[in-house]
Amino acid sequence: MRFTKSIFAATAVAAMVSGGALAESLTIATVNNGDMIRMQGLTEDFTAKTGHEVEWVTLEENVLRQRVTTDISTKGGAFDIMTIGMYETPIWGSNGWLVPLDDLSDEYNAADILPAMSGGLSHDGTLFAAPFYGESSMIMYRTDLMEAAGLEMPDAPSWAFIAKAAREMTDRDKDINGICLRGKAGWGEGGAFITAMSNSFGARWFDEKWNAQFDTREWSDTLNFFVNMMKDAGPAGYATNGFNENLSLFQQGKCGMWIDATVAASFVTNPKDSTVADKVGFALAPDNGMGVRSNWLWAWALAIPAGTQKEAAAKQFIEWATSTSYIELVAEKEGWANVPPGARISLYENSNYKDIPFAKKTLESILSADPNNSTVDPSPYVGVQFAAIPEFAGIATEVSQEFSAAYAGKQTVAEALAKAQDITNEAMEAAGYR
Known about the structure:
Layout: H1 10-18, E1 25-31, H2 34-41, H3 43-50, E2 53-59, H4 61-73, E3 81-84, H5 88-94, H6 115-120, E4 122-123, E5 126-127, E6 130-135, E7 137-142, H7 143-148, H8 159-169, E8 177-180, H9 190-200, H10 217-233, H11 243-251, E9 255-261, H12 265-268, E10 280-284, E11 298-303, H13 311-321, H14 324-334, H15 359-368, H16 392-407, H17 413-430
């Protein structure tokens, strides 16, 4: 069904209701991040406009990925809309598992989506998921603690500066950790962070012949630097901390620095939730002077599994949730600082948003991430914090488990890297890459 009129037009809604169109109940799988929780609180607006009801299945990130992957690959049909990202979308689109989003309304204005986002959510030029928000990663830091340490955060710092600042800002007696970073197992949790970090150390997952590269000095340097810094300046139990755990620590004033998704900026600066809201600064993710920064590129996006019986209603929801009108709805309810970032060009041209403290740094971080050239030495894969091949999710989940075990002190860094090398090469041989 092609939508040629905006779902927001009162006449269209009236025509649908008067014509006796069937109101659907949509089941949507999503991640338990703050922007998605906010969206759930606003879905009465969608129901009022369309008559469609929404049932949410809200899951922790690792569980979400497992559930939607199992459902779509087995054609389980549990969901009408799935929240997925830049890794899954092109692969699933090429498999014919997703409904193309090439017939969205003129009012929706798909051309307004940032090219970095639409490119990562397309296959052969066809959009298969619409970005709810887009992100890179950057440094969020306590300006008061940085000043107290006698340091000044550069706009584009090195990892050496970050490690020094982390140790200087740590105060165990006051329960302040100099730095909070992801260590949680999962390819999209701690695995995403350490992969992006490794890029700036000159590491890569594979050489140009798809041989695993975990037996290299670059990976050893990455993990040893990370473990030593976190031992000296990170929180206890960091091996099980992901995005939400570190967000909570930062909001409670227990982190001097946090390097993570740019989307977190609105949460750490919101005085309703953050005890340090007026003491937060921003900087680009660190580098090592090798020409590659350690920031990633991602979008949480909405997609429709092929075979759904509710395609028309699902497209209406996607138009509602990823539109400029939705952004304006959030701005009206929560303020411009809390709108979903990183997805639309027009947001960064909007006079109401330009002066938000983190807006410029978010866009700069997104635009600087290059999934086609993410490593210092050439690599055969596309992706910054992942390799865009079907086998990656399974391999990287196992590898991240070995890394987390090293963070927890259950094995050495050398042992974790040796296991990662074997896991990866065995899987790639079995898949026919080598």
